[in-house]
Every structure is written in C-alpha cells, then in structure tokens.
Amino acid sequence: MNAPILQARGLMRHFITNKPLFGAPSIVQAVNGVDFEIIEGETFAIVGESGCGKSTLARLLSHLIEASEGSVIYDGREISGLTGAELRDLRREMQFIFQDPFSSLNPRMTVGALIGEPLRIHKIGTPAERRAKVAELLRKVGLRPEHADRYPHEFSGGQRQRIGIARALATGPRIVIGDEPVSALDVSIQAQVVNILEDLKDEFGLTLIIIAHDLAVIRHVADRVAVMYLGEIVELGEAAEVFAAPAHPYTEALLSAIPIPATGARKVQTKIEGDPPNPISPPSGCRFHTRCTYVQDICRTERPQLRDMDQGRRVACHFADNMSLEGIRTDNQARPPAVARRFARYSAARASMTANTESAKLEKEE
Ligand SMILES: Nc1ncnc2c1ncn2[C@@H]1O[C@H](COP(=O)(O)OP(=O)(O)OP(=O)(O)O)[C@@H](O)[C@H]1O
To answer: Where in the numbering of this chain does the ABC transporter domain appear (predicted)?
Structure first.
C-alpha cells in the first residue's frame, strides 16, 4: 500500500501588497486554508484559472516560501522545521519543472552543465560519473548524449523542456512538481512532453504534481485532481471520475471549456462569465457565488466546507450532493482496472491516515 508522501494541513499563504486599499495595506489571500494529501507514486493535478493560487501552493509544498498558517508534512515530517542536511535532502528529493523553457535555462551554460548542475550543487558523483549521468538522462528524455555540448538556444521549445525534465531528474528526486510544464509550448508538442513525463514517472517511481490552468493537459495523465478557485480547493477526487461527473459548478464550467478532440469545438454546457474576483477582497460566503449559475441565497452568506462525499470525492458546495455523482460507477468491479487500483490505493491510504489520526488523538487524550 502506498502511503501519503505529502500532506497539506490548513495551509494558508497571505501576501501583504504595496498597493494600499483605502490607506491600509492590502492582504492577498493567495492560498486560503487547504487540506489534502498526495499519495506516493500518483500523478496529482492542481487546476484552476490564472491567479487562483496554484503556483503559490506549489511553492508552499516545496518549502520555497513559508506558510502564513498551517503545515506541510513531507514523508511524516513537518517541512517548516527542516534545517541543514534535512533541508538539503528535501531540495534534492523535490524538484521543479518550470513553465517557460526559454527563460528557465541559463543561455550561457551548455546543456551538459545545466543538467549536471544539480549534481554538482548536491555533490553527487565524480566529474566522470556526472558526465555519464548527463548522457543517460539525455537519452531518457529522447535527446542524444552529444547534445550535452550545445547551448539551449540551439533547441526547440519542446526539446528545451526535455532538457528541463532531465535537469529535474538528475538528483533522483521522489517528487517532481511541474508548474504549467507545457503551457508555453505549441499544442502539437504538449502531449509529447506530458507523455515523456508520465513514462519517466513510471520508470523512476516518481510522484508527479502537475499544475495546469488547462484541464486538457492533465485529462489523460492525472490520477487525482484538485480544483482550486480563489485560493481554495473546491473539488478533489479521482481524475477519471471528476471528469466523468464534476460535482462542483466551477469544475463543470472548467470542463465545459475543453475542446472536443475530434472537432476542436467547445462543448458549452455551463457558462463561466467574467474574471475571478480580486483575492484582496474575495466574495463573502462561497467565493464562486458571483459567477455560479446555480447560486442561491445561502451561497452569498455561508462559506461551504470541503466535505467528504462518495468514493473519496471532496466538494465545497452547498448544493453538491450525491445526486450529482449518480453518473459514477459505484462498485469497484465496474471501474477500469487502472482506476480501480488507484482508487483502492487511495482509499487504503486515507483509511490508514484516519486510523493514525484517531490513535494519535486517543494517545493525546490518555
Ligand atoms: N509575492 C507576491 N506578492 C503579492 N501577491 C502575490 C505574490 N505572489 C502571488 N501573489 C498573488 O497571489 C494570487 C495567486 O497567485 P499565483 O501565482 O499563486 O496564482 P496561479 O494560479 O499560479 O496563477 P498563474 O497561473 O497566473 O501563475 C494572485 O492574485 C497573485 O497576484
């Protein structure tokens, strides 16, 4: 059974901006209290519109920035307390792939130096071993060892992102976080790069966290998906099932904007109008109520909690109930085998976490 490798608990990050609103400093609620766990070996996607807090969440998970409140637990340890060797281990074990392959690679370094740099920083191997590792990684991402002597500008966008992937894999990480890893690339090569990432994930036994504003990018690769709106998670569940039957009106609206592959047409079921509200002054009640087709009075005043529904799904909506999940197969037998396996793994991990939390509570009480 795979255990949770990363957990967010009541995670919050607020920024104080320099632009005062009515004379007082403004506070941007970039991430506003999120709870979830990522299971070792899964591909976990975080999706939502631009500005909803995805990148801030990724930076919190990897301890690149401090949380305002709440905690991140990596492999059973709270990361805010890590220092020295433990912090270096975390940096080695958790690597990033950035959005823009044009600006994220230093143009003055050769590809070999770029891929080998994390090995040098972490003092892994001799120079000869590092060169051999660079050659191996170049092959793994579909490039050639002789490309090590060239410079990033000699490569296409897709090739540069492969170089970024090779660099991320150099230190043998356990978790790779791709922050919009393909959104700067031509649509025709996005799938290639995502597939390489997925293949390498299986080969190296990685846990993959993919951040995307475009659901089409993660549709075929994510095991589970967390949908964010204005700093909060509004829906979380098995990707195949969230895609088949979205329970939150925002997820439904996001999905309706995905082009239908055969025709390129957009399947418009639910309209999502306007831009997301400003996270400096988010709407009261449900943050999505100003754009929700199904809005009711209660949505304007009471904030819905993220609650457990059927089949590991968690949803924050006053009106999401089991009815909206009726399209989902209820018995594990009827699921496609891969989904059934992942679901079993996830349910078992959740059950063990709940049991651990309960026994910790009991110990505390005793
Ligand atoms: N250092 C910062 N100081 C002030 N505000 C910030 C800072 N970093 C992020 N924000 C604000 O926090 C909110 C969330 O930003 P974030 O970059 O995490 O969103 P995102 O979903 O990743 O968006 P995008 O896809 O456009 O990068 C935005 O309103 C952003 O302007």
So the answer is: 16-255
Strands 314-315 and 307-308, how do they pair?
A: antiparallel
> Is 301 a pocket residue for ligand 1 (Cβ < 6 Å)?
no
Question: Residue written as tokens 């040098």?
Answer: 120
Domain boundaries, the chain: 329-366
**248 pLDDT more than 60:** yes
Beta carbon of 55 within 6 Å of any ligand 1 atom: yes
Q: Report how far residue 164's alpha carbon sits from residue 178's, in angstroms, rounded to the nearest whole number.
A: 10
Name the pTM for this structure: 0.84
Q: How many CB atoms lie within 10 A of CB 280?
A: 13
First to last CA, the chain: 30
Q: Which is more confident, 25 or 43?
A: 43
Residue 282 beta carbon below 6 angstroms from any ligand 1 atom = no
pLDDT of 213 reads 86
Q: Which atom of ligand 1 is nearest to the CA of 55?
A: 22
Burial class (CB in 10 A: 0-12, 13-18, 19+), 336: exposed
15 lines ligand 1 (CB under 6 A): yes
Nearest-CA residue for ligand 1 atom 8 is: 56
Question: Whole-angstrom Cα distance, residue 320 to residue 237?
Answer: 14
Q: CB of 30 closer than 6 A to ligand 1?
A: yes
Answer yes or no: are the C-beta atoms of 187 and 158 closer than 8 Å: no
Distance 332 CA to ligand 1 centre (A): 39
Question: How far is Cα 309 from Cα 313, in angstroms, rounded to an integer?
Answer: 5
pLDDT of res. 264? 45
Of 115-124, 126-135, 320-329, the one with minimum mean pLDDT is 320-329
Atom of ligand 1 nearest to the CA of 52: 21
From the CA of 338, how far away is ligand 1's center (Å)?
Answer: 35
What is the distance, to the nearest Å, from the Cα of residue 135 to the centroid of all Cα atoms in its chain? 29
283-312 pLDDT, tens per residue?
A: 999 999 999 888 888 999 999 999 988 778
The confidence band for 356, taking pLDDT boundaries of 50, 70 and 90, is low
Could you tell me the strand order of the sheet in which 224-229 lies? 94-97, 175-179, 207-212, 43-47, 224-229, 232-238, 314-315, 307-308
